[in-house]
TrEMBL record:
Species this protein is from: Pseudaquabacterium pictum
Name of the protein this chain belongs to: Membrane protein
């Protein structure tokens, strides 16, 4: 099953999902996700729906956007082959891993602007839908600096 009018490649699926979720329009973004979506956000926070990502971002930022620098794809066979071993899970030839890399920009809750906050997102796309999403960025480090607890 694929999303209606789905983009033609896994990378395009992820790019369109990100465009929608950063509007933010998590309900529209949801049409690019599979039932049972597993999201692991910064800090290992487990989520299951794009609306949870938007709610989390509303608490952390006044607003935030992604400046996508590049999108990379790796077939599941390549990923599983790189991790081959006695306990390796067989690759699913229908899965593609998509990485979105770039920087975040926006405003902190107090209105202070920021930009250049690095991010890496990892998505698993199967049959044109996102099944897994992992999010990493430097926001926690930046917040520690703002609190006087660290330096960059």
């Amino acid at each position: 099953m694929t999303a209606p009018d789905a983009p033609s490649t896994p990378a395009a699926v992820v790019d369109e999902f990100l465009r929608l979720i950063m509007l933010p329009d998590p309900v529209a973004a949801r049409r690019y996700t599979a039932p049972g979506l597993a999201i692991r956000f910064t800090g290992g926070r487990a989520m299951a729906d794009p609306t949870e990502c938007t709610a989390f971002n509303k608490g952390r930022y006044a607003w935030v956007k992604k400046r996508i620098e590049r999108t990379e794809t790796v077939s599941a066979i390549q990923v599983h082959g790189a991790q081959a071993g006695a306990s390796a899970t067989p690759a699913d030839p229908e899965e593609t891993v998509v990485y979105s890399l770039g920087t975040l920009y926006g405003e902190w809750p107090d209105g202070t602007p920021f930009e250049g906050n690095r991010y890496v997102d990892r998505y698993v796309v199967k049959h044109g839908l996102i099944t897994h999403m992992d999010v990493w960025n430097d926001s926690a480090e930046w917040l520690m600096v703002r609190a006087g607890l660290a330096t960059l």
